[in-house]
């Protein structure tokens, strides 16, 4: 049956981890995949997560099915985190939130919903974007186009280019926006820029699809969610937010995410939710229990929530310090041109290194970065920072 099946290429980012794991050099460093590692180079198990896990284990509850749209305590806590405590949209019953299999699952279920409801679905994604955005929307039947986002020469946002491209899109086009900590560039919009974008989206009748995979990783939980609130306040009556707890709870493998669909009124919201349930029923029937119980347990407890917020704060502070440390070290080595790394937000930095330089980093130093020059700053630590800075300096001079 499979004689004619040909091998397809694997995910370039996840493939890097395989290559890194196979590398036997003790000095190797994996700056490829977007994972936050702690100072000892491990994926942290957050204190609040550990505590709730112990509580849940002690309770030893049976594992029945969750409803198709997930654990109610999880979806309501998520809605509050994503839209804010005082959200008028939430109060009006206009937000339908569904537990999904990670942020990726939210993107796919959201894309399926739009593919069913929008004729000739087209999505515009930033250039560049997380590669899976293109793949997910294509798989759901979308035509995918780009909008200008990054100015490689200035290592920052090309805001005028972004506005100009968005203004050219046909009404009804879906626009995929990174709420914060843009993957892969680390270039984010300011609040004032978000307001301009939101006004443009409304004027041109574009459909915002906000992907928030790194809430709390740059400035703070509410601060990093500002795009959602600005789009809501712009009076755009329908939009989508996909969020993920993979990074903010360090629960990558638990696959905890959510899809929130904002509709014009509560009745529309209920109808939309019924479609989402139908989509999920025909893919995986219902989500899994454990990760959602962990997140809901932490968010629902004053004590554990404070503990989580504190630890998330420590993670983002550490990332800022790593950026500053890398920039300082590079400057000390005679490479002050990397100062822009400190202006970028979140885990990632578009380092400006070429594909050939990335290859040299890997071959000569055992340092793995994405071919586009993206590095994960959150994989640095005091033990590897000098080594990485020296290598980056050396390859940038080659
Ligand atoms: N969106 C972006 C921009 C991401 O970087 C990621 C990373 O993993 C995701 C979505 C997906 O998150 P998850 O791992 O929860 O599926
Ligand atoms: O961009 C990253 O590195 C993370 C992790 O197919 C990731 O978002 C990468 C590729 C992928 C799934 C997750």
From TrEMBL:
InterPro entries reported in the protein's UniProt record: Aminotransferase_I/II_large, Asp_trans, NHTrfase_class1_PyrdxlP-BS, PyrdxlP-dep_Trfase, PyrdxlP-dep_Trfase_major, PyrdxlP-dep_Trfase_small
Keyword Transferase: yes
GO biological process terms held by the UniProt record: L-phenylalanine biosynthetic process from chorismate via phenylpyruvate
Cellular component annotations (GO), alphabetically ordered: cytosol
Keywords: Aminotransferase, Pyridoxal phosphate, Transferase
EC code: 2.6.1.-
Subunit-structure text: Homodimer.
Family: Belongs to the class-I pyridoxal-phosphate-dependent aminotransferase family.
The name this protein goes by in its record: Aminotransferase
Source organism per UniProt: Stenotrophomonas pictorum JCM 9942
């Amino acid at each position: 049956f499979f004689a004619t099946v040909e091998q397809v290429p694997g995910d370039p980012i996840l493939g890097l981890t395989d290559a890194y794991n196979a590398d036997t050099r003790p000095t190797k460093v994996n700056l490829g995949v977007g994972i936050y590692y702690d100072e000892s180079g491990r994926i942290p198990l957050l204190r609040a997560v550990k505590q709730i896990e112990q509580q849940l284990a002690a309770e030893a509850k049976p594992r029945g099915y969750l409803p198709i749209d997930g654990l109610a305590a999880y979806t309501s806590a998520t809605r509050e985190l994503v839209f804010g405590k005082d959200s008028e949209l939430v109060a009006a019953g206009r937000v339908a939130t569904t537990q999904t299999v990670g942020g990726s699952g939210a993107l796919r279920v959201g894309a399926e919903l739009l593919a069913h409801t929008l004729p000739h679905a087209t999505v515009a994604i930033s250039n560049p974007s997380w590669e899976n955005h293109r793949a997910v929307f294509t798989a759901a039947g979308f035509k995918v186009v780009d909008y200008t986002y990054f100015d490689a020469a200035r290592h920052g946002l090309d805001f005028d280019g972004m506005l100009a491209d968005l203004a050219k899109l046909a009404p009804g086009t879906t626009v995929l926006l990174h709420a914060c900590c843009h993957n892969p560039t680390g270039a984010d919009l300011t609040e004032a820029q978000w307001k301009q974008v939101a006004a443009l989206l409304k004027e041109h009748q574009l459909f915002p699809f906000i992907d928030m995979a790194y809430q709390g990783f740059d400035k703070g939980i509410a601060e990093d969610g500002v795009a959602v609130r600005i789009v809501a306040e712009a009076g755009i009556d329908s939009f989508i937010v996909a969020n993920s707890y993979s990074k903010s709870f360090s629960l990558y493998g638990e696959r905890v995410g959510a899809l929130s669909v904002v509709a014009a009124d509560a009745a529309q919201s209920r109808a939309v939710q019924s479609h989402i349930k139908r989509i999920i029923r025909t893919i995986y029937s219902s989500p899994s229990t454990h990760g959602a119980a962990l997140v809901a347990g932490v968010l629902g407890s004053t004590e554990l929530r404070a503990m989580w917020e504190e630890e998330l704060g420590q993670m983002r502070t550490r990332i800022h310090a790593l950026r500053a440390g890398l920039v300082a070290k590079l400057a000390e080595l005679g490479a002050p041109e990397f100062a822009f790394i400190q202006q970028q937000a979140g885990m990632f930095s578009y380092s400006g290194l070429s594909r050939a330089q990335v290859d040299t980093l890997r071959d000569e130093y055992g340092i793995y970065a994405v071919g586009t020059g993206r590095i994960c700053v959150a994989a640095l630590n005091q033990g590897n920072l000098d080594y990485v800075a020296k290598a980056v300096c050396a390859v940038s001079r080659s």
